[in-house]
Amino acid sequence: MYKWLIELCSSGRYLEHVPRDTLTREQIVQAAIDLLDAEGLEGLNMRALGKRLGSAATAVYWHVGSKENLIALAGDQAWSEIPLPDLETLGWRDAAKHMAIGLYGMLTRHPWVLQAFGSFLIFSAGKARHDDHNLAIFEAAGFKGPKADQATTIVFTYVLGNALGPAAGASLTRKLTRGGSDAAKLIRENIEHAKEIATQFPQLRTRVESGATEYGAAPENSFEIGLEVILDGLEAQLTDARPS
Questions:
Q1: DSSP per-residue string spanning 38-91
Q2: Which top CATH class is 3-65?
Q3: Alpha-carbon distances, residue 73 vs 27, 45, 65, 67, 121 (angstroms)
Q4: pTM, full prediction
């Protein structure tokens, strides 16, 4: 009667049908984040994750339920990494700057979070924690109701836009590498081709010939300067709204 079970145990295939007692959800989520950081959303599958963990894919499913739920859990942890500045010790502007820099840092460490926005539902307590603190900062500054939401959205979308470049670059490099190509060589060749095209246009030709900045790349400190300009504009709105 139990012959089939004895055969499964002796072959090792039994482990594919029960969870590993030593495997935890926390271990799985951290391993998933490591895999996502290295391979992006397209590289995440339960078999590859199980291999990293030294476990069967079925054991991973037992702990997290589905790939979609695993991505949501990984996203929640990523959002929770962003430090929340103390409004008691910082003014609203410095606090807003810290939040924006923290968000940018998280998105560049984990570019798959940007990929997931358009494909998965990853709203979670981690993101809610971030959004709530952002609103508290702009409300403390004096923005009321919808104005506070507008202020947070303006800064948030600015950070997202700046993080898209590194995320796209990482995705392209992975794609070229998976195809068996020398990614670095192909990218260099395409940049040189882009420079040739750019020299046909006067403003671009000046920049290419000066060599001050890599073609297509933002000048140094562009993110920080742009953030200051946005906060200047928001602060000006507060000043204009105050009674004279």
A1: HH-GGG--HHHHHHHHTS-HHHHHHHH-SHHHHHHHHHHHHHHTS----TTTS-
A2: mainly alpha
A3: 12, 15, 11, 10, 11
A4: 0.80
